[in-house]
Predict the 3D structure of the following.
Amino acid sequence: MSDKIVSDAEKQRESVELYLKQLGNIIYEQIENREFPWIMMQSRSTDNIIYDPDLRQYVLGDRMIRRHSRNIRHIRPFTQLVWTAWFARELLRLRKTSTLREVYYSARGQRDIEFKNQAESDNIITDLETALNTPREEFNIFPEERSAIFGDLTIEYTVPGYEGKRMNLTEHPDGVMIGPALTSSKFVETSADKVLVIEKGAMFTRLVEEQAHEQFNAILIHTAGQSPRSTRSIIHRLNRDHGLPVYIFTDGDPWGVHIAMVIISGSANAAHLRGLATPEAKWIGVWATDIIKYKLPTENLTDYDVKRLKELTADPRYKEELWQREIATFLKIGKKAELEAFSRYGLTYIVDEYLPAKLEGL
Amino acid sequence: MTEVEYQSISPSDFFYRNREIAGFSNPSRAIYAAVRELVENSLDACEARRVPPNIYLRITEVAASETGSSIYTLRIEDNGTGVPAEHIPHCFGQVFYGSKYTLKQARGTFGLGGTITILYGQITTHKPVRITSSTGGDIHEYEMMIDIEHNRPLILKHTVLDNKKGWRGTAVELQLEGDYSRSRYRLYEYLKQTAMVNPYADITFVDPRGRLYRFKRATEQMPPLPKPVKPHPHGIDVETFRRLVAITKARSMKAFMMEHFQGVGPTTAEKFLRAAKINPKAKPSSLKPEDIVRLVRAAREFNDFIRPDPSCLSPIGVELLETGIRKELNLREDDFLKVVQRKPATYLGFPFIVEAAIAHGKSIAKQSRGGITIYRFANRIPLLFDESSGVVWKVVNRNINWATYKVSSDTPLVVVVHVCSTKIPYKTVGKEYMADQPEVEREITNALRSAARSLRLYIARSIRLAHEKRRLNIFGKYLPKIAEFSAKLSDREEPPDVRPLLAAVSASLPEVEKKISEVPQIVGQDS
């Protein structure tokens, strides 16, 4: 079993490496044929990002663009793309992982290739993902880790030095950081029957302390704000491969609402990728109607909050009734509430009363 | 009641008391003014003889004076016509004695340039002036002073020398008080700009510290001499008119008008006299003073005279001006220079011609900190003071929208404007800058706009060339990197050859480069 897992991962690695080598081949031969090298990829401009109601996520449209080194404005990003492909292939060959930040720094000292800032290098990496239709995690490039997971889930590592090694995610009470090793691991078994996703670290810690994973038989995931792609990918896998329903618990404000939505329907930024969205996931709070129902301590919505809520109303991902109702309620009461607001009823209220009631009500 | 004593003063006395008017206001200004007067006299003398001027100027320090400024000996030599021996004392020792009282363009117009310098030297040092001159025969050397009260020369010594080598020309040596170190920059600028508009002149200057400045001639060609012409009725004044009436041999006013004014035929003469309500058959001697005033006034308002004859003007000419500017600004072949000469125009009855030039390019960029440097000339004399009060400054900074010509505030430019006229519209007695006479202003504006149109093409091409070069540079930078990493990425030893691709991008460059060195010609817009 574990041999098979490792060799599956190995096969995947080899195929991505081959893609990258193919890209090199194409460009090499174009130059040999006295042609300015170019590649085609789907356009990621806003007018080519379309909401697909069937997939319930954003996808890229049919429009293709040609990155052409004959074009004076394209040649620098084109060169950076080739360099990044080479860098990714080196990572795979050496079985190392890297972060977005590190890619940015690795180009330092590469004259003429250097990125002006991390936004530029992130963008080139996204180009490479689009061109090869492969998420960057498969090139061993990860975001900075900040989210965590806790609960009865046994994983098996595939990273060098840990191949075949297993771990249960209840072993560390702070939760386990969702990094490259965890992202690339195989999920072996779990007794949990649901996933509880929490926006904030303090609430995540409270739930672990209160043994909520046992009480609700859940795997707990902490997103630390807007969830990173690796975290969304793990939520997606737990839902799709292990059939675990997913419940998302965020602050009761437009930003919390959107954190939930990105987990459910994906983001426009990742429209070129599949396997990140979890359309079956449910946002269970804090709703605007909860604020009224539980008489939660609130703050007033700022102008910026109101503007954001109005934008969300028009967003195709928010067309379902629940979202429209909650957004309307937020706007009507002009208030918002954080997860911590439940503390007014005592530290364990949220675990003892609120969450059971919420899960019951679904 | 106090008794007021009236006394007449001689012109020498007048200038002695009002020397600021002629530019001798302080020691640093005086040395500049002295050089300027003498150099211009020399240039005029050479041009009158039609020989390319050789001018040698030397200033040596004699002694420091108590005031901090010094006493200098100033010596200037030229190869001009020379002054006939009998005229030397009056030419150099009497104010308002000279050869410049006809109506043609000349550098000085007061007829006192040389003399005022000598006068200034005398009052500051009490030393005589030494004039050496020959018109081809014997050499006459005078040592003399000016009798200021009586406006006449005082000859101290007169020597006649053999002229074995056949020398012709004039040398003036005098002492004066001045401040060379403070006038050094202006003096240099004056000589440089003089060399710019007199490219056929060879000027050598040895300064008090023994440094040699040499402004070599770039051509032997000289502009044609201006011809003396009769006055134009528009520009006549009452006094000149009265003098003409006094000396005329014409028997009728009709004949008088035709005889003494340019471009007046029988028809125009009759038409004008009728308009002025003067009988064409009347004798000039019968005119009353009020008739003369009426005639002068009517002449100004009468519009049927033909335009003033510009043949009395001596513009530098496009070719000579171009030579001079190239020489003094050290322009290279690929720098931009456009010289424009406007057709003759008139203001208040005086003919004038505007010549203008714009220079731009790497050589200009090297010698300036960016922005527009203005060189102004009036009758081939550099104007160095009060730049921002003059008409050229106004045209450059107000009338012309440089952005139209792709010129930004830091684009290094040289603007040259030369106005030649029988009467330069100076704004002050000091003759340092030209007033904004509407006609003159318009001509300068049009001349510069015309040159600027060519400049715009040049700048547009330069921008394009720079752009092409940058493009090529970018390809040269990135293509090898793409080759390198595509080879590494596909496990090959050697990167592919990018030279054919680089050759393809650079194909268009030589063509653009060729074009840039040609000064764009805009036909049919110069007038």
Summary: Residues 151 and 219 of chain A are 4 Å apart (CA to CA).
